[in-house]
Fold each of these.
Amino acid sequence: MNTLSDPTVAELLEHLHQEADAQMPELRKAASNMTEGNGESWTEQLRDFYLPVNREQGRFLYQTVRALQAKRVVEFGTSFGISTIYLAAGLRDNGGGVVIGSELIEDKAETARGNLSTAGLEAYTDIRTGDARQTLSDPGGPVDLVLLDGGPAMYTEILQLLVPRLRPGALVIADNMDDEHHPYAKLVRDPANGFISSSITLKGGTEYSVWVGLPSNRP
Ligand SMILES: C[S@@+](CC[C@H](N)C(=O)[O-])C[C@H]1O[C@@H](n2cnc3c(N)ncnc32)[C@H](O)[C@@H]1O
């Protein structure tokens, strides 16, 4: 048995996914009413919404943690912790490790910690509250896997922060990246920047990038 089929974890994930699914009509309405320049960021306007990875993406994340034998995972955008549960489940089944999560909204981070605790996975997590551009600056050791899920506008900046910490063969998974002209996609697809990258078909578009190192540092 793996942690995803542990009844406590499976029931909690199903409950959280159902709550997120039930928010969809309200989310569509909120998204269509969202305005820029009213003093409130989009992140603030969406503070009550899960905006999670779906079940298929979650299993994919779990499997990736297992395949990499990952020990240190960094997540940009934790929200209420759904993706974090999948990642931490993989670490537990690998024999240990830590997901360093990041969440700007304090209440969301607190709820995420509670969900991880209910799942019995809090020992595998370090959810940091605040702006990921600061909170992820020191992940504490070599990073095996990065999940970017906090809004594509900041992906390039967060990646650049983490590149010096990536171990050879580390994987960077960027959700909601369906535009090949986006600066992030252009960066990871340029071999001069040390990645081998392509888009995979997972909920719209996911950029899947393997860190092979800068050409000048390769054997
Ligand atoms: C798409 S949701 C993440 C969903 C989560 N990965 C899951 O699967 O459950 C994006 C989250 O990123 C957070 N966020 C946005 N900007 C951020 C920043 N600069 N630093 C940390 N978190 C941020 C938002 O508050 C939001 O909760």
Note: The first strand starts at residue 72 and ends at 76.
Amino acid sequence: MSGSRNALAEKLAARIEREGPILFSEFMEAALYDPAHGYYSAARRAQAEPTGIAGDYFTATQLQPVFGRLMRAAAEEMRARLGLPETCTLADWGAGRALMAEAFSGFRYIAVEAHTPLPKPFEGIVFANELFDALPVDVVCGGRKGMRLQRVAWSEGRFVRVDGEPPEGEWKEYAERLARAFGELDDWEIELPVRMRAVLGAIHASLRRGALLVIDYGYTEREIVRFPRGTLMSYRRHQASEDVLRDPGGRDITAHVPFTHLMECAAAQGWKAAPLESLAALLLRAGERDSFASALAAEREEEAQRLRLQLKTLLFGMGETFRCLRLEKEG
Ligand SMILES: C[S@@+](CC[C@H](N)C(=O)[O-])C[C@H]1O[C@@H](n2cnc3c(N)ncnc32)[C@H](O)[C@@H]1O
């Protein structure tokens, strides 16, 4: 629940007054991607820096050059294994500020964003770092009284959550399946990844032949038991908050990625999946060929120290939290 007065809040409040309470996914879509005021809109991006020290949160892509060098090694290994041409495309899907552009300069690098048209079909590699955690989700709450989708209402100058209709069809089954982990618990919450299949399908349609590397934080179906209150979080100036309805457009909103569902969507679309692994495992494989010598190459000791710290943050700070899913598409 939250007091909110900004241009997007006014627009959403007016919409809710006209149409009634909106689905959480509609609220999240507007908060992140409203063309004029959304957190990730092109207009806002021009003035603000969502990531980095001055921004709201960190991603691995800011740990340059070490993350870039190791991901380049991983991408080169995939290119060789799949027999892709040297000059194949590397599409950074959900590229944000395109901080990987230099690392992938040996490829034909393209940045794909929420507001850009889909690229023409290409052969190569798609890199998706923290793309899927930024997709709008619906929310279902449940317990002894049954399940209800969550809607967002506007009441006394604030956005508030209200119970909506019960979920139906595929999403009813999905919620029932995952909620089994919560047993008799009377007040659980699960996010429904309602946009995931379409985004994966868009990548599938653009990639004629090659691989998709997904890096994100999330859980498998067996691990959902750790999140009985769901995983939605909001970030502003490095402060995490569970109040995702506050200040729409001014804060990031994320949900952990349900990897089991992502793998099921991938299988249905014909992707071939490698086993899910930790980011640490991928980084270790990418660096072990020369014992991290090229990843840590530096001209001065000061720089060498900085790079060693980056590697430590990647391996021990993010390495076990983040997961990697490698999907391949045969031509
Ligand atoms: C959390 S940011 C990650 C940015 C960057 N990859 C990084 O690691 O710093 C998520 C990005 O995905 C983009 N995005 C969201 N939906 C998308 C879509 N359907 N297609 C392409 N990009 C999308 C957002 O605009 C945002 O820039």
Note: The chain has nine helices and 17 strands.
